[in-house]
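Exercise 7.
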Amino acid sequence: MSISYKMMAALMKFRHDSAKEISDRVNQFIIKSGSVVVDYGCGPGRYTQLFSDKVGGSGKVYAVDIEPGAIKDIQKLIVKKNLQNVVPVLADGYTCSVPSEIADMIFAIDMFHRIESPGQFFKELNRIVKQDGLIYIEYGHQPKENAISEIEKADILSIVETTNEFAICKKR
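Solution. The predicted structure, written as C-alpha cells, is:
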C-alpha cells in the first residue's frame, strides 16, 4: 500500500463530508435497481456501499482503483457489509478488466484532478459505458472550466450537462 494512498484514506476519515452529505449526494443521482455502476477511483469506498444499496441485488457495482490498498479496503468492506453485488477491480494505468459497454453509469468522484493523461482515461470510460449510459466526472480540485476544457479537448465524450460539481457525459 503506497504512502500517498494511506495518507489520502486517513484524510478522508477526517474530511468534513459527513455520511449524510455523501448519502445526499448519491441520492441526487437517479440510479435504478438492477443497474450496473462503476465507481472509478473508488478509494476506500466512501460511495461504493451507497451505490451497492441503490442498484440492489439484481445490479452490480464495479469498484475500480489503481491503488492496491484501495482494493484491499473494498474487499474488507464487501465482507463487513455483505456487499454481494460489488466487484473490486485493480486498474493498470488507464485500463481495467471491467467488461466493455456494461455500465449504465460511471462515477469518477474526487479523482479527476489526479489524471495525467485525460485522453487515455476518457477512452477507458468510453469503452466501459453503454451507448445510452452516463459518465459523471467531478471537477474535483480544479476549476470547472479546466475540467470541461480537458473533456472537450480529448474529443472522446460528449458533455450533455454540467452542474456545479459534475460534467455529465456520454459516448460521442
